[in-house]
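$ ./design --mode recover --in tokens.txt
reading tokens...
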């Protein structure tokens, strides 16, 4: 038969059990915060990406903005915009002048036509079209972005 527990052993076990429960609770809270992060909803924001005269007639260019890379194309006076991120592995596409006038991904040699559709190579889907407007000589593109979030214990600066 085991000997009865002394008062000192009992309180030591209570303190150790409480510390273990608090430690496991803190670990569980961090794991849940990792698995379910606080993510701000996407917003549609209109960005100026290039001057209208910078887009070559019947040609294309890639404009770089803080919100992303945009492929701009002039097709007989009609301006179109696409995401300049290849749908295969995320490389930045380039305008390939000459016969065919295609968008070209230098990483794995994927090509897209003027409408953003896949012509050849490994890209699984077409380029994402973006709404585009021209005002006061500037090209504006509407992009979906997530604003940065601050953690509950941070104060915005």
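writing sequence...
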């Amino acid at each position: 038969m085991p000997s009865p527990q002394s008062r000192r052993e009992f309180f030591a076990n209570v303190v150790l059990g409480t510390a273990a429960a608090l430690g496991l609770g803190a670990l569980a809270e961090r794991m849940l915060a990792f698995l379910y992060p606080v993510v701000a909803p996407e917003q549609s924001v209109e960005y100026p990406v290039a001057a209208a005269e910078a887009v070559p007639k019947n040609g294309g260019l890639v404009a770089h903005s803080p919100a992303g890379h945009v492929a701009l194309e002039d097709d007989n006076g009609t301006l179109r915009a696409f995401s300049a991120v290849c749908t295969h592995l995320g490389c930045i596409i380039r305008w390939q002048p000459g016969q065919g006038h295609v968008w070209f991904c230098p990483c794995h040699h994927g090509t897209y036509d003027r409408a953003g559709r896949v012509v050849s190579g490994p890209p699984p889907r077409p380029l994402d079209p973006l709404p585009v407007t021209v005002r006061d000589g500037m090209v504006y593109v509407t992009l979906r972005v997530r604003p940065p979030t601050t953690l509950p214990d941070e104060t915005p600066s």
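exit 0
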